[in-house]
Design goal:
Elements: H1 3-6, H2 8-18, E1 42-50, H3 51-54, H4 61-78, E2 82-92, H5 98-115, E3 118-126, E4 131-139, E5 154-157, H6 163-173, H7 180-188, H8 194-203, E6 206-211, H9 216-227, E7 230-233, H10 240-249, H11 253-259, E8 266-270, H12 275-284, E9 290-296, E10 302-306, E11 309-312
Parallel strand pairs: 2-3, 7-10
Antiparallel strand pairs: 1-4, 2-4, 5-8, 5-9, 6-8, 7-9, 10-11
Helix pairs in contact: 4-5, 4-8, 6-7, 6-10, 10-11
């Protein structure tokens, strides 16, 4: 059955049956609004994915639903937030089959179960393609801004880069390289770093923080410009899987790591005196922090030290509304 045959009312009935509610809430699932009883600071993040921009060949509707939640949670994680509630609005084509819609919703629920919280509301509407607009409300007593990095602060990330970009390349090119299946798996299931973001906020160690979904290079340049600093990357965080795939298909692993995007790692600056403490705390709780370089006094200058030589990092990565990202 297609959605035009199913009708909006039955679609909403399905969604409402699967909604949760927050402890202490007065309004029931499916009401005109949702309410949250909160006694502490909250952060609110929003993100949107669409079928044409975010669903390459080989990606399923379930994957798209999962990515929509992961995207918005990653923004929350960069501020140190712990997700407690989501509002999910769906734009759906009337010719979409009911099975496809259920698959999409399964991906949303998969991600919500991973990161915690409840889907408490949203909206639906008819569109030409699948569009998911998600809002994440997070508990966050000590939000970490993008502003605050100073020369001498240590530059750190929460994981390695390049494997997800390799996965996207494999999907778009139809690559049959030996590692294609593994990199595609990485691309389809990125993970937002909620634990690491929460620890960085709790310890107060991070001077600035941003998620890297638009690519490591663009994230570094954005942080550099906002804080009037530069960055020296001494240890490029290249994923060994990206090195393997790059070797198999003739791509530079450093380019995959810097310019590919699709990771949902955090890029943070940490006050030098707090580095040892925060690394120990994050790793002790099962997370990961990797020191890769340092903020410098040269505004806007971003470079990588590779084989003893300085390699300039170009300001490019994923950008909507651009033919030349």
């Amino acid at each position: 059955m297609r959605l035009r045959e199913l009708g909006e009312r039955r679609l909403i009935e399905y969604i409402v049956r699967r909604l949760g509610s927050m402890p202490g809430a007065v309004l029931p699932p499916g009401d005109d609004a949702s309410d949250i009883l909160a006694e502490e600071r909250l952060t609110i993040s929003t993100d949107m994915v669409s079928q044409s921009s975010d669903m390459p060949p080989g990606m399923t509707l379930r994957d798209l639903g999962y990515r929509a939640i992961t995207s918005v949670v990653s923004d929350a994680a960069a501020k140190g937030g712990t997700p407690i509630a989501y509002l999910v609005s769906l734009g759906l084509p009337e010719e979409m089959e009911e099975e496809g819609f259920r698959e999409l919703w399964m991906g949303i629920e998969e991600a919500v179960e991973m990161y915690g919280g409840e889907v408490v509301g949203g909206d639906t509407g008819k569109t030409r393609e699948v569009i998911i607009d998600a809002v994440c409300i997070s508990r966050n007593p000590n939000p970490v801004s993008r502003l605050g990095a100073r020369p001498g602060d240590k530059l750190a990330v929460t994981g390695l880069f390049g494997a997800q970009a390799a996965g996207l390349h494999a999907l778009l090119s139809g690559s049959k390289a030996r590692s294609s299946r593994e990199v595609v798996g990485r691309f389809l299931r990125p993970v937002a770093r909620v634990l690491e973001g929460r620890v960085l906020a709790e310890t107060g160690a991070a001077s600035a923080s941003m998620d890297s979904s638009d690519g490591l290079a663009l994230t570094l340049h954005t942080l550099a410009e906002l804080n009037n600093v530069g960055f020296r990357v001494d240890e490029p965080p290249i994923d060994p899987l990206a090195e393997r795939y790059g070797g198999e298909v003739g791509l530079d692993p450093l380019d995959l790591a810097l310019y590919g995007g699709e990771e949902y790692e955090l890029v943070v600056t940490i006050r030098p005196e707090a580095v040892e403490e925060v690394v120990e705390e994050v790793e002790g709780r099962g997370g990961r922090i990797i020191i890769i370089g340092e903020a410098t006094e040269n505004p806007g200058e971003v470079y990588v030290v590779r084989d003893g030589e300085r390699v300039r990092v170009e300001k490019r990565g994923w950008s909507h509304f651009s033919n030349n990202p």
